[in-house]
## 1
Amino acid sequence: MRPSRTTAVEAAPSFVELFTPKLVTVLREGYSVANLRSDALAGLTVAIVALPLSMAIAIASGATPAQGLYTAIVGGFLVSALGGSRFQIGGPAGAFIVLVATTAAAHGMDGVILATLMSGVMLVAVGLLRLGTYVKFIPYPVTVGFTAGIAVIIAASQIKSLFGLALAGPEPGPLIEKLPALWKAAATVDPVTVALSATTVAAIAGLKAVRPHWPGMLMAVAIATLATALLDLPVATIGSAFGGIPASLPMPALPQMSLAKVVAVLPSAVSFTLLGAIESLLSAVVADGMTGRRHRSNCELVAQGIANIGSALFGGICVTGTIARTATNVRAGAHGPIAGMLHAVFLLGFVLVAAPLARFIPLASLAAVLIVVAWNMAEKQAFAALLKASWGDAAVLLATFLLTIFRDLTEGIVVGVALGSLLFIQRMSRMTAIETAVPFVPEDRADTANGGRTPYDETVAADPDVVVYRISGVFFFGAAASIGSVLDRIADRHRALVIDLSAVPFLDSTAANTLETLAHKAHRRGVRLVFTGTTHEMRQTLFANGIKPPLARFDRRIEDAVGKLRRRLSARD
């Protein structure tokens, strides 16, 4: 007896279960003073890491360092308070530098804030529509390709600040235009700025090597800031470039909005949404892998959307889950979302208390921080491994990587996913096969108990009247043409056809249409058609396409179908 292919169906989670923030879950479990102590320490650790990063990412994005801090404070608090991950840390991310800078250049900072607000609304909608689970279908070569591409663009965007170059005009955005402009300004290299940048990079790398648990980035920036202030170094600082950082949060306000402006920034908002969903859920998956927990993807997207709306209202830029800060949060011993909320509170304390000191921070040291971030972002080993894996993975990787660098991040992701999907379809179609003149073992007897004959009933293969085809693998649109061409070649000498689908786990409407064409052709020729091994779901699909008695008959086993066909053909003769 062939085992029936049934799948246990779990009860679908309710709306409340899907969208309950992990903060509520943690508090229901019981929250102790010891848990608060762990979260406070983790929150402080993450705040120390996030402080220089938030300002550096904002500056590289064309925003002010204050906007980076507002994003980390408001967005980070909301992501942790409302999110579907216990350990997610939200804030400005390096992945957004290119998109935000491009949007700022085209539509101004008001356009960036409006696009961030619109992206927040879209993310909430994506989460409520429960589309978050589909983000996991993005191929791995695509994520490696666009991450490496972003790393290259971030590094290129910091060359001017690293070397103190004086460009003749505004710095071009596209890499092809940027590099020649920077080369023309090579004669303006400032030795003091170069020395400060190199010292910052060396300090970060050295501290990571000898004291990996120390906040290397913050300490390196602090050393550079102290040297700049005490030695009165002639380098660009936050004070000289931005006038410092306000010692308070601004009042919430809606950005300037009009129908024309909304239409203009809509493509940027869509790009923010796509990248925000990918980046935040990847970060949540990393946290799950480190802790053994499971995040609620759709709840996380809703929280990301609300965080982006909140950030925009306070003049901030895009918010997303940040992998490095989330991993730091886990390693620091965080117990739950309160650690992320406290990280935002600690950053707010810096703004309220120490904002005047920020004016001494040299831009070269923040550029050095981003160079280190870009180096760490580029998954170099994974990139090299995928290049060697197969031609298909290498093609997807390089297409995404090159399009991200030279065209557009969204275009790179879309093309990469499309190529990855085509590659998957091609691979799956190769796994779908068809066997003709199939022998079979009678299922009610052992293989060695066939009356002295071979274990296979070879009369099926030798029968001139009945032919048996067995299809194996996923029968879908990618394999329908090749399978259909085989089935179409039914010899006129056969009077009956058996199609066994017991080895087909899934059959789509294109495959059903192929079988429908075969059924009508067989009917016109007077050939009897029988399907065996079908599941209830397959029969529903076939019935919906018109394949039902008397056009075709269904039997459970090949043996049953062949026996009935032989008796009917003999009776007619």
## 2
Amino acid sequence: MNGTTSVTANPYETDLNRHAANYQPLTPLVHLERAALIHPDHIAIIHGSQRTSYAMFLERSKRLANALGSVGIGKGDTVSVMLSNTPAMLEAHHGVPMTGAVLHSINTRLDAQAIAFQLDHAETKVLIVDREFSAVMAEALALAAAKPLVIDYDDTEYPDDAPFAKGERIGTHDYDTFVSAGAPDFIRSAPDDEWDSVSLNYTSGTTGNPKGVVYHHRGAALMGYSNVIASGMGRHPVYLWTLPMFHCNGWCFPWTLGVVAGTHVCLRWVRAKAMYDAIADHGVTHLCGAPIVMSTLLNAPETEKRDFSQTVSFNTAAAPPPEAVLAGMADAGFEVVHLYGLTETYGPAVVNEWKSEWSKLDRSERTARKARQGVRYPALEDLAVLDPETMENTPADGETIGEVMFRGNIVMKGYLKNPEASAEAFRGGWFHSGDLGVMHPDGYLQLKDRSKDIIISGGENISSIEVEDALYKHPAIMAAAVVARPDDKWGETPCAFVELRPGQTLSEAEVIEHCRGLLARFKCPRSVVFREVPKTSTGKIQKFLLREEARSLGNP
């Protein structure tokens, strides 16, 4: 021996290398490709009188990708869309990433100024816009520095009795003409790496300044499998689009349905009759939505309701549904699945996985179990309640409050062009949700408060700070604070507490009208309370007192 130590090579790490044959980047694009290969004639999309097979769905997505490539779109470019739940939106979810570009879905409820910010921040190269939204988009384009190629989507199934008339064409291309010019035999090369970006979604966060949440191909692919498991989907489910596809990419369900060759049933507006007709006529088995969708279904006039034989799985997020709502949904033929997540976690990342023995508990105990957000999604590696200062787990006693944190492959890449916010969100090796909760001894999470002061109304996030900023722009208002007020229909609505300057007078209607001139309609206060706004000795508004007062007001 010469004094040296012999190191034996690990045989499991020797001559066992990655090759194209044994390693491919994960991508949600394979879900559609597989479904089209195996079930080419199965109906993939129902939209009014239109029926699109899986073979045609894939072909149109390829044509869109090729057409986008012909105008210079490639890896790293942003294609923005402002579309309703229509076939074009489903095609965009596949055709855009086939080019290596990133899909940016714009909230159709935003005002022009917010849209303009997103177009500029995303550096939009191509914009596809539904004619329903052409007026606000034209205004946004006039405000934006970005000058994208604009493509009009003219929905041929737009109903004659629609509450909103189509707007004027504002683009230089027609969507169907543009897609038809693309090659049907386009072969995608994207992604080069599963870490490549697939989509961009803006969230208001804790202030009125939007942050661009970036998803990667790996996470979107894994969400496809996880959604199938969490939703209990079998082969060929029929999915009704009550959830906006612009919201976290429709919780990734535009990609999910391909895993099980399901049928997308498009729905432009959430209306009771249209939902019941779709459920009864098309055999809908699954849908997602905020509590407002449940209220719409349950409170519909009897003349709009339809009988159906199948049990429909309803995935809902935000606040846990009251027992009376759950009972009403069960009586109406729906099975409610409670989910929780954030834009930063690709939508739902936690599911209240119901245990059969819980159904035998008395009503109060069942309600207590249903109030929990639940356990981690199959694709989420870890879910915890931690002390944000020490980053230690809080006791799993159902009482000790900490911050809810996530870790795994369905957590965002980060915030676009915002390294400081990304670093803060990922501090300590966890994604900090900003939500406060407790962990129960059985490992089920339950939220207790939202430290970000976000109001969730009808499934949409509203920044209280953004609304307060609008209120402070009124010359008669000296102090203002906005908190959530419980609402049976919307889950929560903004409630404004307003302190007027001496000698000034305002009515509730005047305050609301002032906000409507500065904010999207859904962000405006639904109720206004005139009073001295409580503050600490240092002048900080005591929102916890106002939250209690808003809760005591009951439903509007």
## 3
Amino acid sequence: MKKNIFFCSLLILLSFFFCSFLQAQDRLTGKSFATRSVVMAQHGMACTSQPLATAAAIDVLKKGGNAIDAAVAANAVLGVTDPEMNGIGGDLFAIVYDAKTKKLYGLNASGRSPYNLTLDILKQNGKQFIPFSGPLPVSVPGCVDGWFQLHGKFGKLPMTDILSYAINYARNGFPVADEAAFEYAHLKDLYGKNPNVQRVFMPNGAAPKRGEVFKNPQLANSLEKIAIGGRDVFYKGNIAKTIDGFMKKNGGYLSYKDLADHKSEWLDPVSTTYRGYRVWELPPNGQGITVLQMLNILENFDFSKVPFGSAEHIHLFTEAKRLAYEDRAKYYADPAFAKIPVDELISKSYGIERAKLINMQKASPYFTAGDDKALKGGETVYLTVADDEGNMVSLIQSNFAAFGSGMVPDSLGFFLQNRGYLFSLQEGQNNTYAPHKRPFHTIIPAFVTKDNQPYMSFGVMGGGFQPEGQVQVLMNIIDFGMTIQEAGDAPRIEHEGSSEPTGKASEGVGTIYLESGFSPESIRSLLQMGYKVAAGTPGEFGGYQCIKFDAKQHVYHGASDPRKDGMAAGY
């Protein structure tokens, strides 16, 4: 019986991947899977997941703004055009390379849980996880404070100019692009009974469709107030009071005090090296150091003779992911509430020890997190912008799930995030829920330096997939010699079944999901090694943007993921 299941699975997978395996070369240059050329420019570059946002960023640069101004402008536009992915009801993280000081700065603009919501309240009625939607997973939105922190430290143009692009699109309308239209098609079933969702996002009784011109005057008014009045309008003014009243009316706990007490945190990015490149991430409460842990494990294996897409490549990548994600589930949390051994987790010595656990011949049936005593010894948008002065910004912003919590405060025109869903309700864990605590976060900006010079600003959106996506991009460039566009175009690998910071237990080996483009031989070998292998679902493999800096020529190289609606542009 088991043999029959094995061969049936094999036949299905082989037939699924056969056509892509025989794909011909359609472009004059590059890999067979390459979709477009790298964009190159000398003075400025912007890469986002929506052309209108990219165009706004480039316009800001041409008007004398810097990369930070342009990044905020682009993010604000994305909140208008893609409310399913991001907006001022969500959180933000950024890494900024400042050309004047020649230094990297990290910003954690994530919000905290409500003061008045307790673990006991959340565990009522035997709940094992925080609800995915509604008022309970709502935490303080950090985005607006993040904008003003970035602008206050580095910005040049007035915020009225920077936010004018988003205000214009919200008030006067814009044509809905493909990805947003795809998500809007599910809005009625998800949150269509919510009167504010109907009023703002279904003004004619149906969600906007591809190519329809959509307007959001409520959001335009909110953005205009923020542009004129500053961040306090959102956290201490009328917007805060409106959110407070809306949450009280709808059984929520987020209050005026939660908003008024909010503040972002400037911090130093942390790093490791990978074959001569230094990769930078932000420390927890985000999952960025997962990337560094995976790289430290993978650096112990020689990929010079391992072909891209081979079973060996996929096997080593997957096992490194499984090892790092067990630590992610156990240790990552708000550092104000838990002691996290960051230096030990990202150390080379720890990476060597974890790499020893990988069996080269087969999938290990089960991995656990590293012993803390041993350690002591030893749905989202991403964008990146660079300017003529040499400043570079790596920025990521999110509502968490599509349309966040589904909660749209009266008259404000935006969704509140549901990031609180990622807390654990199991007592005694690093990420266990507590009032005024930042939840575990999935959104992570990244940066790479080489020889102490800025080399690459990049990110891969996609929830818990983001570390997997970032590591694959880096391996594609460093180990497999791809251009930054090819590195994003290449077929991707996703493994599911690891332990989660929410308290969800490991599923053992789990399942490898593959995009089309991997060979039947690799899939067959993976099955023989004990993996479950399945075809991936479109939309589950993230979205990538990247700017690389050629210091010798002083040229920016830009890349944008074909899985999204966006583009790279420069001048």
